[in-house]
């Protein structure tokens, strides 16, 4: 892909359209948690994906990757909108694993829900009592290394997850991992990242971040996605 800059000169880069999956329901009608490996898109989530598909309709995409989890594959298929392009799976981009909800006392849960990334910069910092941030960062960076080391693509669609996307953005901006606490990723949001061409080195360019077609200025978005997800559930006393 040739990108002309404001001085009229050309530079060659590749582009990643990084999406978070669309809205899902992590709890059933009774408020009980479901297995996050198997949750699918809600009706509203499908609308979000259709809106993103319309926005990207004229964008050439020559490769599509999802994390392999159902919610990312469903989002990718809807966003591609009938393009004759297979959706590949790369498990290195799967979401971070949280701890068991029943292990949280009510007071602890609320505090952790509002500040889930407080320990992201610490060596042993964990996400909601589960996987270490250091471990998922290592995994995501390996996924990026593999991706950037593969020729044959210029504009790629990568549908992943909240924490995964935050780590990709932190990598692209060359900032410490702790900054992910400030990089909110709403459902079905778009990030546009330009990366060096195959076989070349250089810095990345973050051109778009957390863009939502249905709510571009976030007028309707006040809660974090975690707060939205857990609004229908609270741990039982004791």
Folded structure, characterized:
The protein is an alpha/beta fold and 238 residues long. The chain is 28% helix and 17% strand. It has six helices and seven strands; from the N terminus they run E-E-H-E-H-E-H-H-E-H-E-E-H. It has helices at 43-55, 70-80, 106-114, 133-148, 162-173, 225-229, and strands at residues 2-4, 10-20, 63-66, 87-89, 155-160, 190-196, 205-211. Strands 1, 2, 3, 4, 5, 6 and 7 form a seven-stranded mixed β-sheet that branches. Strand 1 (2-4) and strand 2 (10-20) form a beta hairpin. Helix 4 (133-148) packs across helix 5 (162-173). The longest helix has 16 residues, at 133-148. It is globular, with a radius of gyration of 18 Å. The model is unreliable at 1-10 (pLDDT under 50).
């Amino acid at each position: 892909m040739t990108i002309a800059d404001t001085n009229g000169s050309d530079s060659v880069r590749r582009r990643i359209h990084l999406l978070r999956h669309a809205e899902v329901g992590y709890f059933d009608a009774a408020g009980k948690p479901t297995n996050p490996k198997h949750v699918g898109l809600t009706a509203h989530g499908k609308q979000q994906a259709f809106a993103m598909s319309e926005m990207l309709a004229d964008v050439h995409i020559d490769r599509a990757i999802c994390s392999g989890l159902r919610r990312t594959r469903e989002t990718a298929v809807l966003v591609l909108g009938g393009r004759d392009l297979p959706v590949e799976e790369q498990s290195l981009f799967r979401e971070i694993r949280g701890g068991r909800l029943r292990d949280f006392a009510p007071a602890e849960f609320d505090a952790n829900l509002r500040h889930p990334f407080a320990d992201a910069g610490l060596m042993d910092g964990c996400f909601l009592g589960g996987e270490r941030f250091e471990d998922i960062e290592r995994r995501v960076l390996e996924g990026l290394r593999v991706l950037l080391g593969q020729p044959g693509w210029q504009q790629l669609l990568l549908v992943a997850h909240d924490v995964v996307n935050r780590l990709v953005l932190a990598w692209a901006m060359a900032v410490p991992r702790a900054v992910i606490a400030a990089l909110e990723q709403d459902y079905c949001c778009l990030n546009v990242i330009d990366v060096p061409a195959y076989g070349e080195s250089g810095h990345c360019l973050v051109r778009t971040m957390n863009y939502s077609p249905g709510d571009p200025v976030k007028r309707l978005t006040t809660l974090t996605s975690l707060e939205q997800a857990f609004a229908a559930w609270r741990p039982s006393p004791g």
